[in-house]
Each structure stands twice: as C-alpha cells, then as structure tokens.
Amino acid sequence: MSKKQNPDHTGINTRLAHSGNNPRDFFGFVNPPVVHASTVLFPNAATMVSRDQKYTYGTHGTPTTDALNEAMNQLEGSVGTIAVPSGLAAVTVPFLSALRAGDHLLVVDSIYGPTRRFCDDMLAKFGVETTYYDPMIGADIESLMRPNTKLVHTEAPGSNTFEMQDIPAIAEVAHAHGALVSMDNTWATPLYFKPLDHGVDLSIHAATKYPAGHSDVLIGTVSANETAWPALTSTFTMLGICAAPDDAYMTLRGLRTMGVRMTRHQESTLAIARALESMPGVAKVLHPALESFPGHALWKRDFCGSSGIFSIVLDVADPTHHQRKAHAFLDALTIFGLGYSWGGYESLAVHANLSDRTIAMPPKQGPVIRLQIGLEDVEDLMADIERGLAAAKSA
After folding, report:
1. What separation in angstroms does the CA of 320 have from each of 158, 324, 349?
2. What's the whole-model pTM score?
3. Rounded mean pLDDT of 177-187?
4. What is the residue-averaged pLDDT of the chain?
5. CA pair distance 301, 310, nearest whole angstrom
6. Fold of 258-394
7. Mean of pLDDT values over 210-233
8. Which residues pair with 39 in a beta bridge?
9. Which residue of 241, 288, 367, 379 has the lowest C-beta tally within 10 Å?
C-alpha cells in the first residue's frame, strides 16, 4: 500500500487505487516506472555468483512486474503471484508446475476450450491423463480421485454455459487426497470471489479481461498460497514465460478503475439478463446471479457480485437451423462487436461452440449466444439485441 492503512480495513476501490507500489519508492510519482530490462548489472563478481540482490535478470522480475504482482497478492490474499503473457499461459504454467509424467488430472467439463486442447494434446504427450467431470459434482468428486490425482482444476462459473461449482467441497476432497486445486477465476475477479479463501491453491486470471479492461493487452496472472508457491515460481523461472513490462504497466493502470467498471458491468448485465428472461425468441438465460439459474444458490453463498458476461439460448427447436439462426442474430447487431475475449469497455457477442463437451452437454433448446456487456447505455444494447432476435426469427 502507498499509505500506512491496513489493506484489510479499507474498501475495495481504495485498495485498487493504492495497491502494488509506493510512490515514495519512485521519487513521488504515482505510477511505477516501466522498466525495460534484460541485463541487470552486479556490483562485483561475488554477487554475480551469490545473486544476492533483488533483481538479477529481466525474466525474473522488474519493478514494473513486481508492482502488478504485489497488487494481485493484496487482492487475492496470496503468498506470491506471477505475471505471464496471456490467460492461457496462466493455465498452462501452473499445470506444468503441479504435474509430471504418470499423474492424473481432473478438469471440469465446462472449461475454457484452449485449456482442454492443452490437456488432450500437450499433457497427454507428456504422460499426464486427464478426466473431465460434471461441474455440479461437488463432494462426489471423491469417486474420481485416484492415488495419482495431483491436481483438480475448476472454473466457476463455467465457460459459455456458466455452471456453478461447489469449490469448498471440491477443495476439501482434493486436499484429503493430497491433490492441489486450481481455479480459473477470470469471470468474477478477486473483487467478487477470492479462491484462496475457499480452499483453492492456485488462482488463475486472464488479466487480459477485467484487470486490463480495454481490449488492448494480453496478460495472465497466477496467485498461489504457501503450499503451491514454491513449485509455481520455480516452473515460471525455468520456462521463462514472463509478461512484458508495458503490459504489466497497462494492467496495473487498468486495476485502478476495475472496481467502478465492474459495478457498471454488473448493473447493466443484470438489467439486460432479467429483461431477456421474458423476451420472445429467448429460450433460456444462463446467468448464475438470476434466481432462475440452477446454480444460483451456490453463487449466492460464495460470491459477492457478478460480472458482465453471460449467455442466452435462442429458441430454435430444429438443430439443423441453429447455425443459420445464430448467424442471423449476430449479423444484425450494430453495437455489439463480433469478437472473442471480453472484459473490455465494448460489448461483444459470439456463437458459443460447445462441440467439445462430453458431460456438461449444450442446451437443446437452441444455439448459445454469449454476450459481453460493456459500458454502453443499457437502452441501446437492448435495442441491438432486439434487432438480433428479430433477424433470427425471420431467418
């Protein structure tokens, strides 16, 4: 913190405004410097051998990346954080830190798609077996644990269909079997859910999304507790997968306004999601903060807010018409952009591809359209969605 207050006794926006660096460390400038570094000089040969100084090489950290990592530690309650070049790297590095040939990995079936590809291809080639499980499994994950299960990976809500998981129950079972628990917490951010407080060992964020917040940075963070930190930082150092200083700086700058942006995302998204529940052409709204959603009780128990991304299921009974109707909806939009990622200031829409699911199967009522609600006016966004629904109906 840049002042002397206890971070546990201040509001979230105060912490976001002041976490990560002390201006007094940098001659009073409120933002940390962007340190572009590869070589770091040592005062003498003995120190080169002992490495007894704070910085030794650019890949191991700079004042810029340290400022971001410290901010995330304060938000997450973690022992240490690493910053990596993308959200996917934030998944793969902790997997590599926790797993070795012959190990077994449990992954929720409603996972971020590229994570599944990494497990099925890269980890399989390295001799790690992956089993996918039902996101609603809770404590019954006991039945899937093996003597060689070393990691249980969770994501709540799930990608595109937003299934909730009982994270504390899963963590309790995993730890009883000596396994670590990781969680992709990109949807909620540490503002609305703190994984390490609920038994998770490794909290993963595509900081590309809400922390950076402006659709112009690729970066990921992983925050670990005392148990998981030694292997995570060692793996991070060996792989040399480090975030660029400019991206770390931009993400730290984005953090300063994340609280007020998240409030806006939440309010607008809930207003739109509730309106769509009774909208003709919409078969179902997939948002865990809605009382109608199957996982709402878990969300209400564990989370203290919701973000700006959810999905709708178009009311299209004939599966052969799903793609045509989904494309008609998307092509009619004029404010929503058609693009991947989310968490920025602009609204986005995509036709979710759920063809890789094996357990958490796609809704049968129609195609799933994922909506990222940005910072635009709700009335304008609703009018755009109505255009899309009208186009889908007539397609």
Report:
1. 26, 8, 21
2. 0.94
3. 98
4. 95
5. 19
6. Aspartate Aminotransferase, domain 1 (3.90.1150)
7. 97
8. 57
9. 379
